[in-house]
UniProtKB/TrEMBL annotation:
Superkingdom in the source lineage: Bacteria
Species whose genome carries this gene: Nocardioides pocheonensis
One function term, GO molecular function aspect: DNA-binding transcription factor activity
Bilayer-crossing regions: none
Disordered: annotated span: 1-20
Record protein name field: RNA polymerase sigma-70 region 2 domain-containing protein
Gene Ontology BP, a term: DNA-templated transcription initiation
């Protein structure tokens, strides 16, 4: 049975505005997304897309290519949201790990920005 989102969309385990609450809220949204809740995934996107684009721009010098990486990243995140708990990473770290790995595996990116020299083994780790 799929979990249902709280009416206000907020995680209740930690006081609002704390890093723990933010992580808990993002993790909760991924849990809902893993059960097919598109609204929860859209909220996860809204809360993380600026960080994802910044990370993509650090990896890829072309702004259009960075946008393509971010689109691919979120498509993959939607498809693999159920793997987040097994990754051992915070929700944002889990998401952003995919930027570097996708960029390294994709033509038109600048892998020198990441300090890496080859495609990553798999994304997300632990999936």
């Amino acid at each position: 049975m799929a979990p249902s989102m709280p009416r206000d969309g907020q995680a209740m385990a930690h006081p609002a505005g704390t890093p723990q609450a933010d992580r808990a809220h993002l993790a909760e949204l991924l849990t809902f997304a893993a059960h097919g809740n598109a609204d929860a995934f859209m909220r996860f996107y809204d809360l993380t897309c600026a960080a994802a684009y910044r990370a993509a721009r650090l990896t890829c010098t072309d702004p259009d290519r960075a946008e393509d990486l971010v689109c691919a990243l979120y498509a993959r995140a939607w498809a693999t949201a159920d793997s987040h708990p097994r990754s051992g990473r915070s929700p944002l770290a889990w998401l952003l790990a995919g930027i570097t790995e996708a960029a390294l595996a994709s033509p038109g990116t600048d892998a020198r920005a990441t300090g890496a020299h080859g495609p990553a083994a798999a994304w997300p780790r632990g999936a």
